């Protein structure tokens, strides 16, 4: 086996492994930061909605109107109007369901399948507030939710999964491309360097 080939076989795996490890660690650090910021934004909107709903309920209680159905419905309509005001794009969706998973409010038209209603009913029963992974009208969503006991409704602030992870998907593609270019460049440099190092040895061998 030629010396140049031996150098390539020894050094190349180390170079490739280092490039891959650095690329993967950078990718996970970046995507974790992006996902955390986006998640916090969803949770912030959910908190805004919760605060507004609590304010509407407090008004009813202060005026002793909490037992009047028409006033409760008016308060819920106020919360729905506020929800529509904080939706920024078509891919966002805010909805509310009762404990059976039946849709009572939505910021744009959707239809729930039986499985989707059952999933929302489960989330409502648990008052799930962590990052949600759910399907709405056949589209995968990521969201944040909270159960508002005075209205007996579970609110979900969501974003389409494809939009939510669009930036991380773009970074994954870029990282993969950079890794390929880096490895190709490392192979080219290593091949040139090994040729430069072994050229004097080859001359000695030919002379002998």
Describe the structure.
The protein is α+β, with helices and mostly antiparallel strands. It has two domains: 58 residues; 126 residues, Beta-Lactamase (2-Layer Sandwich). It is 65% helix and 16% strand. The protein has five helices and five strands, in the order ααββαβββαα. It has a five-stranded antiparallel beta sheet with strand order 2-1-5-4-3, with helices on both faces. β3 and β4 form a beta hairpin. The protein is rod-shaped. It starts with a helix and ends with a helix.
SSE topology:
Blueprint: H1 3-62, H2 69-85, E1 92-97, E2 103-106, H3 114-126, E3 132-136, E4 139-148, E5 153-160, H4 161-164, H5 166-207
Helix pairs in contact: 1-2, 1-5
- Principal-axes geometry comes out as rod-shaped
**CATH fold-level label of the largest domain:** Beta-Lactamase
Number of structurally distinct domains: 2
Distance between the termini: 18 Å
Please provide the ordered H/E string of secondary-structure elements. Answer: HHEEHEEEHH
Strand content: 15-25%
Helix fraction by DSSP (H/I, runs of at least 4): 55-70%
Please identify which CATH superfamily of the largest domain we are dealing with. PAS domain
